[in-house]
Amino acid sequence: MDGMTARLGVSERNAREMGAVLRGARRGRLRTALLFAGPAVIASIAYMDPGNFATNIQAGARYGYGLLWVVVLANALAMLFQGLSAKLGIVTGHNLAELCRDHFPKPAVYFMWAASEIAAMATDLAEFLGGAIGLSLLFGIPLLAGMAVTAVVTYAILITERRGFRPIELIIGGFVTAIALCYLVELLIAPVDWAGVALGMVRPTLMDNDAITIAVGIIGATVMPHALYLHSGLTQARVASPTQDMRRRLLGFSNREVVIALSLAGLVNMAMVIMAAGAFHAGNSDVAEIETAYRTLTPLLGAASAAVFLVSLLASGISSSVVGTMAGQLVMQGFVGFRIPIWLRRAVTMIPALVVVAMGVNPTQTLVYSQVVLSLVLPIPMMALVWLTGRRDVMGEFVNSRKLQAVAVGGAAIILTLNVILLLQMAGIELIG
What we know:
Number of helices: 21
CATH class: Mainly Alpha
Strand content: under 5%
Helix content: over 70%
CATH architecture: Up-down Bundle
CATH superfamily: Amino acid/polyamine transporter I
Radius of gyration: 21 Å
Number of domains: 1
Distance between the termini: 64 Å
Structural class: mainly alpha
């Protein structure tokens, strides 16, 4: 059995079965597909983190179903770039950060690492605040205490990585299932105008300048920089695939998992906007905070709806915090070649969240702006990913086709355009009267 495969927690039996599938000796069973499931499930939690709650609640409460098209667009971009990230790891055996270190000049590498660490802090800010807000509202404890509990639970889950990736994959998969079920329940409780939902998904509109900020925040909360780095690392040595045919089959399993996992994440994000629109838009469009949303849900839709909302927020905060730490370690090791203890990384990246809470800054607004920061950082790994997967000397016969490369460049251009619009707006230039 391959040493790296053993380290990643794939049992000898599973490794033999996966090898048999990749050699073409086994086909077409559900268990076969489940053998290869995991990386996209872990990456998908980044698309359901507390930052999504903040931006989606504001989008639905203020603009109804009008910004659903942004969620659809963001999820399509997420599928494209997560698929490319997984392909990069499978084909090269290296993750995105390592390949950036190998193919870019040192000044660019250090700049990319610094930008990635800023993104990690913005990500952790959202995740810790989300978990802390959920615990605070659920149990009536202070935010700082909620952050401490979130940190302890996160660390306890991360310790299971010593037994390989499979235990963490199962835990994260459980959290994903819990969040999805919670929002299924919310849709059954909240009033929904399904015709309005269908129209909002396909009609691009930006009602005012605040809608631009929220739209960019939705993109930043959905297509996450750390998820692009992490996915390539999760697939790079999962199972030995020494031949081109084996890599091709492995890519097929990976692409299907990306579509399924991120479709579920996209549906959850749409459900967040739909719930907020149905519950708040008609009479409470000023709801812009997670705490206000929770307290307003109780009289509007009942205590059960509010409790389900908090459970989903708590599951999101804890699970995304675990994934964020995994991504941070991979990025640091890939760019600069060293690791630090998990507890130390957790402590360092918690500092911005602790400062925000200690200063009494509005937590939900902080969540929204943290997602805007992520959107501004996102083009860096995105363009690197497009460039690397478009190079034949890196990818061999798996290099992006011209059509796929054009779509990827177009997706990156959309993100860059939205960022330019946001920067113009932040400079005081009103784009919508």
